[in-house]
UniProtKB/TrEMBL annotation:
Name the record gives this protein: Integral membrane protein
Keywords: Membrane, Transmembrane, Transmembrane helix
Transmembrane intervals: 29-52, 64-84, 90-110, 154-180
Composition bias, Basic and acidic residues: 308-322
Keyword check for Zinc-finger: no
Organism, as annotated: Streptomyces cylindrosporus
């Protein structure tokens, strides 16, 4: 993978410093190292999901669909097509024959003539009642009204008089109750509100306002004091703890660490590496000795193996012959 993309042909490349290039390449390498495992895991999950979908989920879904059709859909379709529809048609024909046709015949040949006869009789009765009202009841009513009108007017005048008397009595009683309630309740309540509650409320409001202002002022002063105390404690903590620790780290621990690193850790690491190299060389020598002894034992027991005949591989000879130690590239060519 090319970590540095080349600009397209025909476009100029802006000047870039060595620092930009030196930062870009390690960053791209680190990003590549971090992204490649994630992408590999993602691709593996996608492939596994597709395989599971193709080999398990899709066949199982098709089988379930076929089972659902065989168990539910096809029986319901057959029941609807071969049972419900014929039975419905038969019931519809039977209802038409037993109910609709008799009802239509009854309405047309029985109810309609009977209704016409009842309507004619009702019109005759209404005409008779109209004649009776106009010719008999109306004159009788007029005669009765001429006799009862003075009596009704007298009754109305008496009722008005009684109503006026009752109204005056109620008005007098209500006025008396109003003044009694005003004297006993309203005027004392107004006096209490005007001469007691209002002054006390004003005094309490002034007190509450002053208390609130005092609390706000005290809160601000306390905040400033707290800030000053906090700063003082922070400065004291820095003088007592932070600065001594920093001085000890800078003047004691750092030189001691450098001395330990240079005098102890590096020589120990070199000694460990030397021991490791010597151990690897000893192990390699031992393995070589074991292989040589095994080869000698095989030659002693089985004899020398047959040599394979040389095969002409038609390799080029001369100066143009390519070997493992030579190269034809422009960078490594002798």
């Amino acid at each position: 993978m090319d970590l540095e993309k080349r600009p397209p042909q025909g476009q100029g490349q802006g000047p870039e410093g060595c620092l930009v290039v030196a930062i870009r390449i390690p960053v791209r390498i680190v990003v590549l190292v971090l992204v490649v495992p994630v992408r590999m895991v993602w691709d593996a999950l996608v492939v596994a999901g597709r395989f599971l979908n193709d080999t398990v989920l899709r066949p199982v879904g098709r089988a379930l669909e076929w089972v659902a059709r065989a168990v539910f859909v096809w029986p319901l379709v057959g029941l609807w097509r071969y049972v419900v529809v014929p039975v419905g048609k038969a019931l519809g024909w039977l209802g038409n024959v037993l109910l609709v046709i008799p009802a239509v015949w009854t309405y047309q040949y029985v109810l309609t003539p009977l209704g016409h006869a009842l309507a004619w009789a009702a019109r005759g009765v209404a005409a008779g009642l109209g004649w009776l009202y106009a010719r008999v009841l109306t004159p009788i009513g007029h005669a009765v009204m001429r006799v009862l009108t003075p009596v009704g007017q007298a009754i109305v005048w008496c009722a008005k008089g009684i109503g006026w008397i009752l109204g005056m009595a109620v008005t007098g009683i209500g006025t008396g109750l109003y003044w009694i309630a005003r004297v006993l309740f309203v005027l004392p309540a107004l006096a209490l509100w005007r001469w007691v509650l209002v002054p006390v409320g004003r005094v309490l409001a002034v007190v509450a306002r002053e208390v609130g202002d005092a609390l706000g002022h005290a809160w601000r002063i306390a905040g400033r004091i707290s800030l000053a105390v906090g700063r003082a404690l922070g400065t004291l903590f820095r003088w007592i703890f932070v600065e001594p620790v920093r001085w000890v780290y800078r003047t004691v621990l750092t030189p001691v660490g450098h001395v330990v690193r240079d005098a102890v850790l590096r020589p120990a690491a070199e000694a460990a590496r030397s021991v490791g190299r010597a151990t690897r060389l000893a192990l390699a020598s031992a393995r070589e000795s074991v292989r040589q002894a095994r080869a000698d034992f095989r030659r002693m027991v089985f004899g020398e193996p047959a040599r394979a005949e040389a095969v002409d591989r038609r390799e080029p000879t001369g100066r143009e012959t390519r070997t493992l130690g030579s190269s034809t590239t422009a960078l490594t060519k002798d």
